[in-house]
Amino acid sequence: MNWMFFGKRVLFVTLAVSFALFIGYHLLQARSNEELETSLDEMATQAAENQDWDLDGEPDLDDAESEKSLIWLNSSLARVAFSEPRKSGRVFAYLSMGRLYGVDDQGRILELEVGESHKDAPLLSGDGLKVDVHNKRLAGKEFQDAVQFMKELEDKNPVMGRRISEICISRKSGLICYFNWADMIPILVGHGLIKQKVQSLSIFFEQLTNTGLLDHTRYLDARLGDRIVLKRNS
Fold first, then answer.
1. Is position 196 within any domain?
2. Which of 184, 158, 216 shows the shortest CA–CA distance to 48?
3. How far is it, in rounded angstroms, from Cα 142 to Cα 192?
4. Cα 231–53–48 angle (5° rounding)?
5. pLDDT (tens digit, 9 = 90+) per residue, 3-45?
6. Where among 78, 108, 139 does a domain terminate?
7. pTM here?
8. Is residue 22 part of a domain?
9. 205 CB contacts (<8 Å, ≥6 apart)?
10. Cβ(104)–Cβ(166) below 8 Å
11. Residue 110 in contact with residue 101, Cβ under 8 Å?
């Protein structure tokens, strides 16, 4: 009897320990998932709201010789680039600098006639935009990424491309595109790997178009390149 009683106690303790470990593991896993989700939320919020404009003039440039003549667009020194806008050109995007201007895919500033209808194109914004004051055009790696993003999207998925209403260029977060669906959906694109990211977004969009999932999406994160992270509205 004593051996039977002892065996039952050992079995009970073993089951209790196993159950505790099982619960602990899943609590840890849930906490890890929650922390990951919170981290993405914080990055998305920072990226979408990071519009801290300053007037320092010269940005902190790398060693790239081609960027030595660039200054931040939000510097008062950048106004000279808008003094003589081109009278004609193909609009790639729009830019608001006291008034609305067009921008072609080379970054050249285009004058828009008041009262005339204009091509549908995204609005450029953000504290990461740079201007070449000598050549009077937008320039820099971030602007080139924005141009490549829209061209790749037009090639891979023109329907999705027409739904991009704004491209924000953030100093810290890179490209953030705003996708017009049931609500405005931010797409965190980040820096580089533009072709791969557009390919992933195009496939992702085609798979979700008719599922209704995009109707309840808070943001999409494409910064990984080979996959898309979807954050749903809570």
1. yes
2. 184
3. 9
4. 5
5. 454 444 544 444 444 444 444 434 334 343 344 444 445 554 4
6. 139
7. 0.70
8. no
9. 157, 160
10. no
11. yes
